[in-house]
Design brief:
Helix content is 70%, strand content 0%. It is an all-alpha fold and 96 residues long. The termini are far apart.
Length: 96
């Protein structure tokens, strides 16, 4: 059936969600962020950390765990955002 606008009914113009390629890229990017974050944490493992740095490390672990949970639940955007936050914090702690 064709409506007044000329579009066929039942044919969405925009496909919801990510394409398989975008989904794969997002998962790989998130995984890379988590790997780099983990490497940063290993670099600082033997260091004496200030209370502020210890708090940041706790936040990093929280963000990493939340990212993995979001990824498992299929929420790739949230997983990526959390992995990115963890990565930024780990870079900050590793620099000092």
């Amino acid at each position: 059936m064709v409506r007044n606008g000329g579009a066929k009914e039942g044919t969405p113009e925009i496909e919801p969600g990510l394409s398989k390629e975008q989904e794969l890229h997002n998962r790989e990017n998130t995984s890379q962020l988590l790997s780099t974050t983990d490497a940063n944490l290993k670099k600082i493992a033997g260091r004496q950390l200030t209370p502020a740095q210890q708090s940041m490390v706790e936040k990093i672990h929280t963000y990493m765990n939340q990212s993995k949970a979001a990824s498992s639940a299929g929420d790739l955007n949230r997983a990526h955002t959390l992995a990115f936050k963890a990565h930024l914090l780990s870079d900050e702690v590793a620099k000092k």
